[in-house]
Design brief:
The chain is α/β, with parallel strands linked by helices. It folds into two domains: 258 residues, no CATH class; 105 residues, no CATH class. Helix content is 49%, strand content 13%. β4, α10 and β5 form a beta-alpha-beta unit. The two termini are 16 Å apart.
Amino acid sequence: MRYERAMQKTAGLWRLSAEVGALRQEGGQPHFDIETGRTGETWQTSSRFFVFDHGAIVDHLAARPLATRLIEGFRSAAAVVLEGGAFGYFRHAWRFGLFFIFPFLLVVLGMAISLTVATYPLWLGLGLWQLPIGIALGYLFFVKLFIPWSDRFHTLHLFSDWEMAVAVARLDDTAINDWIEASAQSARQAFAQQADEYVVSSHSMGSSMAVHTIGLLLEREPDLLDGKRVVFVTLGGATLQCALLRSASVLRARVGAIARAKAVVWLEVQCLTDIISFYKSSVTALTGNPDAPQPKLVFLRIRKMLSAERYRKIKLDFLRVHRQYVLASDLRSNFDFGLMTAGPFPAASFDSFSVDRAPEAEIGYSEAAAEHKNGF
């Protein structure tokens, strides 16, 4: 399990002991338990991590025929443009705008080359009898050479990602709506369990899904979180990918509901070198909630989290850089996903965390024998 590998590395970095239990599903949502502590000291952190995974939706999109994925991807791109999303991307985070157009421009380039190959008898003045050969060559170039080569840029994955972004904004897809409803019911059960702190963490597209889930709960039960300490952590700052679309009115309203909830501390973790984020943008103001508190911004530097060799290997892979928020670090820095979700510190304290606040320097809950967290 990826989290277990990351947590073991976190434990080594911060001189902790960590035990990650097996993934279980009895009683509802898949979950596993984590116990952290340190030999010879009295504190212990007990965490239960609930997994809200929309991987089945992604797998369904990826399993369709190539032609369907291309057609639906371009249709979604047109929707993003027509709904004002593309304009918003370039206005508020121009690098995200480039991220949006990149896969579509790449595929258009591949199609143009394929068309050139397919029509070679025409532009070389050869006999029309060779046109079927050209069409076959053009098709083979696109399907057998170009598409596999484009996988290094995650092209078809990004086509599906934009399909999902439009569906999350519009809420017109049964699979996504069912996922949000089921997740809200499971999250409601998780919040009913006793804990000192509830950490709702999400990454990339998952942040919009988390906003829908928690926002739906607050719509139904505005007082649900009263008396609880809830930390809503969005990693990668990509909520605006969906929220800037004109049709995303429900998502924007739910952003406001979460930001205004008195029990919720919202942390937005961002990185300058992560192009798949809206660096330093105000998610509340840009979603029509200027009166709501802005999430506390936490800035990290991927270069300071990884060894020089590891950083050199990934720095040009924009999706790999974007995933680093939830992966293991090589070095101590002001953010560590495992330390935040299962360590001795309150998750809310990571708005001002630094390497000087290592566990051996400050345990956080020194007066308590144990800290209980529920994580999502």
